[in-house]
Specification:
Structural class: mainly alpha
Low-confidence stretches: none
Helix content: 40-55%
Oligomer: single chain
Shape: globular
Order of helices and strands: HEEHHHHHHHHEHHEH
CATH architecture of the largest domain: Alpha/alpha barrel
Number of domains: 2
Radius of gyration: 18 Å
Length: about 300
């Protein structure tokens, strides 16, 4: 006699993937082909972990990040070099852990103070290096560095942080390339999420109108407007933005598509489909993070709780 074991829900399998791919006592790996701990992604996983009730995992990640902060307040990327974007994503984690983990407030202030040194007179956010960006990321991802700076300002009562975030936002809003879907979906979605977080819902809706023209009946969105392959993370992020904008049907379809392509491990390859060019052979840690964030919004939209 055979007993069929019921398949775990997709969000549970995603969290299992996190547990299985966290470096003990440190943080989440980059991807399965580069299993070193990744500070940036570990940082923005921390709010996700708290939201799903995984407090001990969140605390472990936070303590590791505190141990690797550079003397000037910045945080290193996997290559050991500080990046403004990476530092800001770790600030997301520090904001979530504030009041729960000892030492977070001092580290958060230092990181914010360092970030302010990267703001130039025009409002552009500079970074010590862009080497790891290769040729697919651009300066526009720095919009996603602004919400944690603004949030830190509110939590710490430092108006200078909030003012700096708004000053930089004003610069990026002037950039013609910010809103259109004209780059890898993952990086475009960073900007759409950031606009939502900064209260710029109309601009986000404009950008998502481009995406909606590309969403297929199965819920997927191509990695670029003119390709057939998809980027898993981009679709998860777009689901988050659609839930935020009240477009539940589109978001639900995106989630359903991701559940269909989710690997047996609970993780996701960076991209899928013929010609896929974004880490197609490795399971990437950030796809799981955004899937968990999107799924939590799905549950909330249905009146359920994690």
């Amino acid at each position: 006699m055979f007993f069929w074991r019921k398949k775990k829900p997709s969000h549970e399998r995603a969290m299992d993937w996190f547990r299985q791919h966290m470096v003990p006592g440190q943080g989440i790996i980059v991807h399965t082909k580069q299993p070193a701990p990744y500070p940036e992604v570990t940082g923005y996983y921390i709010p996700t972990l708290y939201n799903w009730g995984e407090k001990e995992l969140a605390r472990t990640c936070t303590k590791w990040l505190l141990s690797i902060q550079l003397p000037d307040g910045a945080f290193p990327a996997p290559d050991g070099v500080p990046y403004t974007f990476d530092t800001a994503q770790i600030m997301r984690g520090l904001c979530a852990a504030l009041g729960d983990v000892e030492g977070v407030e001092i580290a958060l202030r230092k990181a914010c103070d360092w970030t302010l040194t990267q703001v130039d007179a025009s409002g552009r956010l500079n970074t010590p290096s862009t080497e790891l960006w290769t040729d697919i990321a651009s300066d526009l991802i720095h919009t996603y560095a602004l919400p944690p700076l603004a949030q830190a300002g509110k939590l710490l009562g430092v108006k200078e942080y909030e003012e700096a975030a708004n000053f930089v936002l004003a610069y990026y809003k002037k950039q013609e390339g910010l809103v259109p879907f004209n780059r890898l979906s993952h990086f475009h979605a960073y900007a759409m999420e950031a606009l939502c977080e900064m209260g710029e819902l109309e601009l986000a809706a404009q950008g998502m109108a481009d995406v909606e023209k590309c969403q297929r009946r199965d819920g997927s969105v191509p990695a670029y407007p003119d390709v057939n392959w998809i980027c898993s993370t981009g679709i998860a992020q777009y689901a988050i933005v659609w839930y935020t904008l009240g477009k539940k049907e589109r978001a639900d379809r995106a989630i359903s598509y991701l559940e269909k392509i989710q690997n047996p491990s609970g993780g996701f390859f960076g991209s899928y489909g013929k010609g896929a060019k974004y880490i197609s052979g490795g399971e990437i840690s950030w796809a799981v993070k955004y899937f968990l964030d999107a799924y939590l919004l799905k549950l909330r939209a249905e009146g359920k709780h994690a």
